[in-house]
Structures are given as C-alpha cells and as structure tokens.
Amino acid sequence: MSPIDDFILLNGLSKVGPITSKRLLEHFKGDVTGIFKAGNNELGKVNGVGGKIIDSIKNPKNQEWLLSEIKKIKKRNVSFLIQTNLPELLLEIYDPPIGLYVDGNIPQRPFVAIVGTRNPTMYGERQARLMAEQLTRAGFCVVSGMARGIDTAAHEGALEAGGPTVAVLGSGIDIVYPPENLGLYQRIVENGAVVSEFPFGRKPDRSTFPMRNRIVSGMSQAVLVIESAASGGSLITSQLAADQGRTVFAVPGRIDQPSSAGCHKIIREGATLVRGVSDIIEDLRPYMNESQAILNFESNKNTVSESKSVNYQLSRIECSILNQLKEGDQLSIDELCEALSLSISEVMSAITLLELNKCLRKNPNGKFESL
To answer: What are the sequence ranges of the domains in the chain?
Structure first.
C-alpha cells in the first residue's frame, strides 16, 4: 500500500475519528503506515486508544474495504487529498480531517463561508446571492454546505459571478443531498470543488452535519451567517468559527422575524454586524494577495436593503409598493392599501404588473414580498 492508501484506510476506520487519528499520527510521528504495522501494545500507548479501536485498526477485512474504496475513487474520477495538500487554515483546527475526497479542484483563493437557514425569506435568499456574487468578484471563494436555502443561494450567487465555489458535504461524495441539487453539484464541480471527509456510501445524519460544519468554518477566514433560527445549525457553525479563531459576520433582519433570531443573538454576543459586502472586504483585506484584483470595489458598497433593479419603467404606485417592501417586510393587499393610502384596485393593478416582471411574489400566507 502507498501512504495515500493508508490515509484512505485510516480515514475510513469505523471506530477512529479525527481526534484519535490526530493522536495516532502524532504518536507515530506522521508515519501512517507505522500505525497499521504497530503491535497492540504500542497502539495501546496512545491516549484514548482501547481494545475496540485496536480491533478496528487490525480488522482483517480492512484490505478488502480499501481495495473497494480505491476502485470507487478511480471510477468516479475523484481524488483523495491528504493533509499536506489541504488548505493551510484547515490544518490549524483542533480536529482536522485526515483527508478529503475532492470532486473538482479546490481554488487557490481566500475562503469565506456563507451559511444560514434552510427555509429563508426572499430577503435572506436575495442577500445570500448578492453577497456571494460580490465576494466572488472581489477575489474570494465562497464555501458552504450545499443544503437547501441559504447554502444553495450562496453557491448560485458565486457561480453567477463566474467564480469558483466549494461545497462541503455531510455525506459521502457520491451522495447528493438534497437530491434536487444534483445540477448544482455538477456546476460546482465545473467551477470549483465538492468535498467530503466521509467514505463512499456514507449517508447524512445528525453526526455528519456538525463534522461537515467544522470543515466549512475551518477552511475559511471568516463565516457569514444570513438568517438563522435561535437554535439553527448555522449557529453551530458560527460557534465553531469563533472557537477556531475565525471572524464571524452576521446580517441583521427584522426583530420579529424568527429566521433572524439567531443572527441577532450572535451579534449581541460579538459577531460583526454586516451592512454590506464592503464591511467584509475591509476586514479581510489583509488575507488577500496584492495580485488578487478587487473588481468593482465601489459597487460592492451596497447596503443590505439594496433593491433589485428592473428593466422596465416603474409607475409611482409600483415604486411606492417596492419601497414599502424593500426591508424584507411581508404585507397583504389590505396592509399595503392602508400604508400607502391607496384603493384596492390601484394596489392590485400595480401588484399584477410587479409579479409579471418578477419584482415581487405572493407567499403561501397570502402576503407579498419583494424579490
């Protein structure tokens, strides 16, 4: 076996996690082959290594599993990067992965993670796309988890800007989750990388997502949270980022919006409030090489309330409606009539045109929200 094969096997052992693997490598001075050649007594000297872990290392079926895993790697045309080839920041965390399965190519750029709720408002989704697009044009690579909601919007925003993005999976690299993101997976591979520390066939579960989140934050200079419930998974990522010494940014929302409760919580606890992408770029400028061009920097100085431009002439009433909704408010026709002192017919006529031109949409609750 080659050293890379030994790393693949060590990474795939059922009873050996990242922390135990780190202790084993430290004890054997980085000699991964020595771990599998060592006797039981020598292995038992490693802190936390007991009988079950030793049995896992010495399992006679390991060779059969490894040969099968190598075949899958070749068949899928993916690579397995060992620690010496991983992003440097990722190796600084307490529990770095032994290696990563990589489909595509991890770009040589500073990384910024964007995370958030799986059920965003249109406001949150719009900000995720906008900020991912502008960060990409500024020379950063957006990292996220390819989940529904904010993650998906962040990846799509980066791709729309023509730049690379990295998706970190909470499953084996052969399992696309959620399944509707298969097309997004393929686009990311063409313009960046999909990565996972889990062997082929590992399905996502409660334990894999926190492990995924530590990689998302660990490889990034900063984490940006856009909409999160008070106990959302994004808060786990932000806490991991803080523990890892990363900068945590958060986009504020309405104080009565449950999906913004998490952002407001971490802002009170010390996260940096983001008014626009320029706040992030200014803080992270030291991480950028002189050769990395910051494109349209002045255009990045957008506040989070920036409205989407439209390609037709708005009427006075249409402008009034969009201005009423621009802060992420969701209002019914009656509420718009009252706020703007307009008749129902005037508001309904304007809303119809705005919907046709994709400036707003009607939510399931019967209220309207700007796009």
So the answer is: 3-75, 103-300, 316-370
